[in-house]
Amino acid sequence: MSVPPTAEPTLWELQRSLTQLREDQRDSIAGLREDLRSDLQALAVRLEQSVTKDVYHADQRLLGQRLDVVERDLASERQAREDAEDAASAARRWLVGAFVAPVVVAILQLWLLAQGKHT
Known about the structure:
This protein is an all-alpha fold. The protein has 2 helices and no strands. The chain is rod-shaped, with a radius of gyration of 49 Å.
């Protein structure tokens, strides 16, 4: 039996539609609750991974201190290298002087002897 389109719904159809609407709303609210729970869990995970401002500043101070230590170490190494180079240069001058001076004195003596025989 077919119902004309202009006919009003029966009480049973209205009750069924109302029940279906309530179930749909309950399902939607349950879905929203689940979505909200998952969003809150994701936010909690992100908050656990986030760094507070105090921790960030403490880390920056520690990094600055480490850089200062490295800079001091580099400066001391540079100074040690310069001191070693100066010592090596002085040793070379002493060594050259130790070998060249006797040769110069010997040449000078030979020259003086040669000058003395010619006069």
